[in-house]
Structures are given as structure tokens and as C-alpha cells.
Amino acid sequence: MLEEAPRAAELLFNEPVRLIDGGIRLFLGDGSDPVILSARTVDTTVTVALPIDLAEGSYALSYRVVSADSHPIAGAISFQIGETVQASPPPDTALEGTPPATETAVSALTILQYLGLLILAGLVFFERIVLRERRPDDRGTRRIMAIAFGAAALASLFLVPASALRITGLPPSAMFDLSSWVPGILWQPVVSAALVTLAGSAGLILALKATSTPGRFAAVAGVGSRSPCLCWSGTRRPSRRPGS
Known about the structure:
It is a single chain. This protein has 244 residues and is an alpha+beta fold. It is built from five helices and seven strands. It has helices at 100-130, 139-168, 178-181, 187-209, 213-224; strands at 8-12, 18-28, 35-36, 39-42, 45-49, 57-66, 72-81. The strands form two sheets. A four-stranded antiparallel sheet has the order 3-2-6-7. Strands 1-5-4 form a three-stranded antiparallel sheet, with no helix packed on it. A hairpin with a 6-residue loop joins strand 2 and strand 3. Helix 1 packs antiparallel against helix 2 and helix 2 (139-168) packs antiparallel against helix 4. The protein is elongated, with a radius of gyration of 24 Å. Residues 228-244 have low confidence and may be disordered.
């Protein structure tokens, strides 16, 4: 409870964070549309400029930022201006959380990406290094390799918008509205998708075509370098909360 309207608010985190466009909003107690606020970040501190001369009443300052390990951190801090004002219910900030459907989509795509890469790398390694096959693989093996690579590549590509939706806190249906989730794109899933697609394609072609010893090792290196250790995953639910 504050006697007068503050000019600014500071959110203190335990690690550096990055701002998202439209991620800092002020909800008004009267139920009107929230106000998007400007803010700046320096290391672990986010300074938010509040509207001038806020009237007496209840408010909620909501935030959604990206942590140093590329996970969203969201929440809200409620406050009231004026001691004599009757407290009204805190503004609805339920939209600040990540929808379960988005979390499920990111998890499912990550599992599909990992599974496809593991199957592809395992088959290539077993055929070319363990068995030391020089002949082209049979039709069934080639089909499994192609399906595994296709699943990993598609999952990697869809993880770019899916992870952006998770950062911005939007449902999967918002994928068709580019302007809503593009601000949440991170470089990690983009790089991962590029590496899986390019290096995976090269490794798959070499695995299907190469018969020489250098070619076999090049194929294994191509698909092995895209192992899950380089694939970005955003499935951990953060528990950090800031001070204010």
C-alpha cells in the first residue's frame, strides 16, 4: 500500500534477464485494458517507468522476461495507491503463465527431435562402424533413416515458433499470427534447426551413398555432430521470483 504514485518500479532477479516486447504491463483495478510499459534492464535489474500521476486505486504490475538460460520468467506484483481506497480484487493476470498446450507442444517436439536424431545416428553408426558395411543399405534401413531424419528436421523447425510461443506465453493457435510470437524467437532453436537440417542432410546423403572408409566416417560425423547435446530444449518450468 502506497501513499502516492511511484515514478518507477525495479524488479530484482538473481541472474541477468532479457526483456520481451510488450512483456511489462500495468493492469488497472477497474478492469480496463492493461497498459504496456517501457523498461530497461541492467544485469539483474529491470527498471520500469510507470505512468505519471496514477490515480488512487489498485494495480498489478505484470512482467514476462527471459532468463540467462533462455527460459521465461513471469509473474505480477499487486499494489494499491491511497490508504482510504477500498481494495478491489487484483487484476486478472492469468494470461501471464504459459498455456499447458504450449508446454506440451514444446515437450513433444523436443522428444521427437531427440528420438529422430538418436535413431538416425544409431543406425548410421551401427551400419557403417560396427558392421563396416560398404554396400548401400537395404530399402527398409534407408526408409527408417529417412523417416528419422525427417522427424528430427521437422521437429527442429517447429521448435522455433513453439519455443517463441512459450517465451511470449501464447497458445499454439497463435502460431499463425507472426507478429505476436516473433519477438520471442531465441537464437538457440534457430541454430539447432539449421544444424540439424544442414549437417543431418549431409550425413544422411553420405550414409546412403558413401562406400569408402573416409565416407563412412564422414557420414557418422555428420549425423553424430547433431546429437541431442546440441539441441535446445525449453521444457523446464522456472521457479524464480524477483524482488521489488
